[in-house]
Amino acid sequence: MEREKTKEIYNAQEREGYWQKFWEREGINEFDPESSRQLFTIDTPPPTISGALHLGHVFSYTQAEVIARYRRLAGFNVRYPMGFDNNGLPTERLVEKEKKIKGRALPLAEFVRVCLEVTDLYKEQYKNLWKSLGLSIDWRLEYSSISREAQRLAQTVFKELFEKGAIYQKEAIALYCPTCSTSVAQAEVEDNEETSVFYDIAFTGVDGDELIISTTRPELLPACEAVFVHPDDERYAMMVGKTVTTPLQRTVPILVDDKVSMEKGTGAVMCCTYGDETDVYWVRKHNLPERIILTLNGKFIHLEEIPEISSKSIREARNIIVALLRERGAIKKEQQICHAVGVHERCDTPIEFLPTKQWFVKILEKKDDLIRAGERIQWYPSYMRKRYEEWVSGLKWDWCISRERFFGVPIPVFVCDSCEYVYIPDETVFPIDPKLEAEISACPKCGKGGLIPEKSVLDTWFTSSLTPDINNTSPMNGKLAGKLYPMSMRPQGHDIIRTWVVYSIVMGLYRHQDIPWHELMISGHILLQKGEKISKKTGGGAVKPEELIRTHSADAIRYAMYGASLGRDAFYEEQEVKKGKKLIVKLYNAGKLILSNLQDFETDSIRSESELEAIDRWIIARSRATATEMARAFEHYEYSRARLAFEDFFWRDFCDNYLEIVKGRLWSDESLSNAQRASAHYALYHAYLNALTMISPFIPHITEEMYHAEFSDGGVIVSRTDSGFFATREGQKSIHCISWPVVKADILTENEARGVELMLATIAEIRKYKSIQHMTMGARLSSVILKGKTEQRNLLHPFWNDLTFVIRAEVLSFQDENSIDVPDTLTIRI
RNA sequence: GCGCGCGUAGCUCAGUUGGUUAGAGCAUACGGUUUACAUCCGUAGGGUCAGAGGUUCGAAUCCUCUCGCGCGCACCA
Question: What is the CA radius of gyration of chain A?
């Protein structure tokens, strides 16, 4: 008789949306400012709106998410907000690319309007992804870094720091990106390996002799102000103090400095204004004149001696000059080299050193304080602190916060054109844009000059570094307003330690004389395969998060993200997703088995857990011990370890062993006492509910589904928001509102624990026997004799009936280890 | 060059303060499964814990050195 079983299937994609709507409707993730429970506040990274979402976003955000959910179950009042960093250079670049426009070419108001339009669109995309992943964010706490509130805060802080003397304006050599036409901070410069040509160029000495210098920047020849050699270099000793003439007929001194490397090139180097940081140093140290030949958009100015390069780009000018030098026979050698070049992280353009007037936040004098503050924060993983310290101690520039861009928070400053007085309006008028102020009055100080509005906007990190303050001052904080600083925890990637962590601590020190958070959770990157990083630049390749969720479900993707330990780079493994799917199915099926057998279960059927069968107490104790282990792991942000502990418990102990064992009592007829059956029911109820609870931070949808599941008359599982086998008995509307399981008391004696171990070992022996004999695990054995010590028999005693059932023995008996084997009987030594 | 991290089964990784015979999943081989399981269960094979030296009764774990990989910083004429 063949009967096609109608298999019941958990339709993850459909059910996940159902529960997401339920959570939102019921406010399951909402932060309650009136609650007296202990706070756990999260300083969520506001993602930069700079393009499409990729798997890297999913990876890092799910990591913080699992902690938020755990803390909620552990009884904390969790504040888990989301923000959006939707201004600044990255956003402008996105908008320019998408709309094929140039910010510089548009009226400011028009460009800002387009920026807002585009970022709002992306914001929705981001939000939809977070929601479809089931992130337990309280969306009422959403903020945006370009909002009026954030702008007001940023400008207020600017004024505050300026008045404290922590912000200053200075005309100085700054790191400058000619493509973006803006200054940048040290933290935004990264190294790129680039091929380049190392030219040996002949200069002419006073006596007509040659002096050959080596350079990769021949186009800067017109700005050459000196030639340097090492003081110990005997090759050039004769020429030191004299002058040389460049092939462009510029006569400059030959000086010594021990920063020159004798080995590199010819050992003679030209100093130009400015080719690199050393040039800046030399010009200052040796008091050299400055000849700036580059404009702020990276084009050359008109030069008498070489008019050909006028208004040419760096690359074009280099070609022109090289051709010219070749013609004149001044190039003695050309060598292809590969060297690191400091480039702007947003556009890969080599950074130039140009004199501009910029605003800075003093951080160099704060190095020691910053390092001390870093020591007061718990870093997870702890070695990440080193990176912070390395970066802070290696800082060479104050934090340049002005950007000559458009879509950002305006610097709220007017400067008097006569006495240079810096006028910052009263903060009650913030946010303001000085450029757009119609009325500009006379200077309040000298009364003579006019006030010139500042045109720059703030580095977007200036606002981002204030996220702890943004959270702290949110209108949603109720009676906790202003009491959320420092926050409990900041989750973020290791790549932005040098920016976001550093600047946030800077702000914390200046504004609060305190650290911004107690703990830092630093995550790694997800890689598609060895060496292939998913980042803003690569865009994440073919793996699109939305599509992954659609094909595999959010729970499965989430699960896969928790495989690697915190801080480590991990590979995206399809296999991990498969593993997640299997766990989901397993939870579903185990639930089906349990619900179908527990229909008449009442929570008060057992007066005290001590009444339970030993094996039932064991599985309950195991579930609680696992919860304790997981809790410890979560508290140290070791979610992968928590996941592992769960799998060990659920897959091995609960499904493979306990469920198989307990089936005996579930299926048995009247020969069994009600108490024994009730004991099994009680254990199944609690151990399974504990399992659901413990894994719910990882896979919140399937666990909610099972919490609300009911075994219907038709023999199928139905799950609805307003009902559910567990939901009605627990009296909580969501599994995400119940309490983390805790160890209540020692409910298992030591001997019982040893008995369980012995029992499991015995089961394994029998399974091994059946496997070798090619028997099915359910094959009946007419008689089995366990042979061992009397003590072992006593240990096994409480489990005898269950053991007999699970190995499918008709008769299970015991013999002393020294007795003679009974022929034709299966004898297992224990 | 400096700093950090890593190197454990064919693959991806666990391995808590040094302590029985180093674990898991996947893959492989064999077998079994339909009274939860788009399966699932069982069994087996598979490791010089990168290498060398040291500390110790005892080292994958601690120390030193070497090699390889990754990352950060510096160099970047």
Answer: 35
Contact indicator for A408, A431 with CB cutoff of 8 Å: no
Give residue numbers, 477 to 496 of A, with CB < 7 Å from strand B: 494-495
Is residue A782 within 8 Å of A822, Cβ to Cβ? no
Residue A732, class by beta-carbon neighbours within 10 Å (0-12 exposed, 13-18 middle, 19+ buried)?
A: middle
Q: Which residues contact A237 (CB under 8 A, 6 or more apart)?
A: none
pTM of the shown model: 0.93
Is the CB of A12 less than 7 A from some atom of nucleic acid strand B? yes
| Distance, CA of A704 to CA of A555 (rounded, Å) | 11
DSSP for A165-192, please give it: T-EEEEEEEEEEETTTTEE--GGGEEEE
A681 touches strand B (CB under 7 A): no
CB of A260 within 7 Å of some strand B atom: yes
Nucleotide nearest to A12 (CA to C1'): B38
Report how far residue A606's alpha carbon sits from residue A604's, in angstroms, rounded to the nearest whole number. Answer: 5
Residues 6 or more apart from A503 whose CB is under 8 A from it?
Answer: A399, A461, A462, A464, A465
Q: Is there a contact between A366 and A511 (Cβ–Cβ < 8 Å)?
A: no
Q: Do A202 and A393 contact (CB within 8 A), yes or no?
A: no
Q: Is the CB of A339 under 7 A from strand B?
A: yes
Q: How far, in whole angstroms, is CA A720 from its chain's centroid?
A: 34
What residues does A650 pair with on adjacent strands? none
Q: By three-state DSSP, how is residue A604 classified?
A: helix
Cis peptide leading into A289, omega within 30 of 0? no
Residues of A 140-199 whose CB lies less than 7 Å from any atom of strand B: 186, 189-191, 196, 198
Contact between the CB of A322 and strand B at under 7 Å: no
- Taking each helix axis from N to C terminus, what angle separates A639-647 and A614-635, rounded to the nearest 10 degrees? 170
Enumerate helices (H) and strands (E) in chain A, giving the number of each.
24, 31
> Does at least one atom of strand B sit less than 7 Å from the CB of A538?
no
Please list the rounded mean pLDDT of every run of 10 residues in chain A (830 residues).
Answer: 52 94 97 96 94 87 95 97 92 92 91 94 95 97 95 98 96 90 90 87 92 94 95 92 95 93 90 92 92 92 94 94 94 88 89 93 95 94 92 93 94 94 94 85 88 94 97 95 96 94 97 97 81 51 83 94 89 89 94 91 87 94 94 93 93 94 84 83 96 96 96 86 94 96 88 91 90 89 91 93 92 88 80
For strand B, which nucleotides have at least one atom less than 7 Å from a protein CB? 3-5, 12-15, 24-26, 30-44, 70-77
Separation of CA A333 and C1' B76 in angstroms?
Answer: 20
Contact A211, A432 (CB under 8 A): no
CA A827/CA A829 separation, integer angstroms? 7
